Amino acid sequence: AYNIHVNGVLHCRVRYSQLLGLHEQLRKEYGTNVVPAFPPKKIFTLTPAEVEQRREQLEKYMQAVRQDPMLGGSETFNSFLRKAQQETQQIPTEEVVLEVLLSNGQKVKVTILTSDQTEDVLEAVASKLDLPDDLVGYFSLFLVRQTKDGAFSFVRKLQEFELPYVSVTSLHNPEFQIILRKSYWDSAYDDDVMEHRVGLNLLYAQTVSDIEHGWILVNKEQHRQLKSLQEKVSKKEFIRLAQTLKYYGYLKFDPCVTDFPEKGCHVVVSAGNNELNFQVRLPNEQIKEGSFKVTRMRCWRVTSSVPMSNGPSGSSPGKSEVKLELAFEYLMSKDRLQWVTITSPQAIMLSICLQSMVDELMVKKSGGSIRKMFRRRVNGALRRSDSQQAVKSPPLLDSPDASWEPMAKLSSKLTSVSLRGISHSSSANDVGANDFHGNYAFEGIGDEDL
Asked: In this protein, which residues make up the domain named Ras-associating (predicted)?
């Protein structure tokens, strides 16, 4: 059997015969010209070298399928992975109550099936909150890990090939939770969301939470104005003011390590406004800030490796530490490209952010709308919830914390997983992948943009 990992966690275990079955199904649906070649069957028992060769071939095959927009986004491919995930984790199909958090800490309990995919769960939460159908596509479900101070560390955006209930319960750790947040980057879309009462309340709760966690930078005067708007319950004006603040709409990542401008620098990365923002602590303890625009990244890749376990052969492979890196090739000047690497357990989430920024830019460039990016399944009967739940108003902002002022001191301490989420591993039975993404938004860069 072959292990498929997502973000260093076992997603599913599949046999060669199951992958061959998937291949034959794809060929039947899309034709032999579209589907990549599959590693051939062998009559005799494979030698260790042949086993490793087959693993590498299967890795390349899965990579090629995932990166093909038609095959990788197909229901055949995604349902194969969902079914394999459920079988591997041995969770029967049954009705359960799943708890989904809102940014203000409020819990929304939805009754779903264990076999419900991400879109089903998102629709169930939207229904419970009475969020209109045409606004559902502006939000996504994220897997997060709650930190001791009540903040969230983002693991990944839940993908179409996974079952949220199975993904969160199979981690066997109450720190992991699912949270609902907006999923777009351009704050111009806030206007669409604020048109509706529930959309406005969700956006307001998220903005208050991001300010409280120090993700959005606020000086004393701005803080006073925000609190005054809160007291008047002027939610739209509160959001309008917040939109003018530094790091509004950014996702902040945990402190990690980068090789820019030199190896071993501690960095806090934030993603937003079509860029990755770096707050780097140099070896001389000086803190520098800079940004890498997504339109100047030629490509990026996620690499992951599982170190060889020194423990006894019976020890659990899930316990070995997975090292994840995001590397992107950046146009530093008109004719100079340079690779920049971030070593972080959140590398896949960073990659998902880059991919979704590029997708949004491309939709905008083609004159499309992100409303249309949310494809409702034709046969998906939406289960409207009988009992609705209101989004609670968050409490008033606390006094500003001195450490929020202009620069927070840094702690010294698959591209879109989509399967581009197969992790590279030293175990011969793990299907791995060093994911590589070309950036379509990069091609539109002219000299005047540099």
From this structure: 94-185
Give mean pLDDT, residues 411-430: 32
Closest-CA residue to 439 (of 324, 331, 290): 331
Amino acid in the structure at residue 414 = L
Per-residue pLDDT of 97-123, as tens digits, reads: 999 999 999 999 999 999 999 999 999
116 closest CA partner among 142, 135, 97: 97
Hey, what CATH topology would domain 91-183 get?
Answer: Ubiquitin-like (UB roll) (3.10.20)
Q: Decide if domain 185-248 falls under CATH 1.20.80.60.
A: yes
The answer to whether the beta carbons of residues 248 and 187 sit under 8 Å apart is yes
Q: What integer pLDDT is reported at residue 321 of this predicted model? A: 63
List the one residue out of 265, 269, 261, 257 whose CA is nearest residue 283.
265
**What number does CATH give the domain 250-306+322-371?**
2.30.29.30
Q: What angle do CA 129, 132, 135 make, to 5 degrees?
A: 105
Instruction: Give which of 369, 440, 349, 373 is closest to 188, Cα–Cα.
Output: 369
Q: How far apart are CA 379 and CA 261, in angstroms?
A: 51
Residues 6+ apart with CB under 8 A from 413: 255
∠ CA 39-11-36, nearest 5°, is: 25
Neighbour count for residue 396 (Cβ, 10 Å):
10
Q: Which fold has domain 2-89?
A: PX Domain (3.30.1520)
Q: How far apart are CA 81 and CA 70, in angstroms?
A: 16
Those residues with Cβ within 8 angstroms of residue 416's Cβ, 6 or more apart along the chain or in another chain: 159, 351, 352, 355, 356
For the chain, the helix, strand and coil percentages under 3-state DSSP, each to the nearest 5: 35, 25, 40
d(CA 436, CA 414): 7
| pTM, 2 dp | 0.83
DSSP state of 77: H
Per-residue pLDDT at 399 exceeds 50 = yes
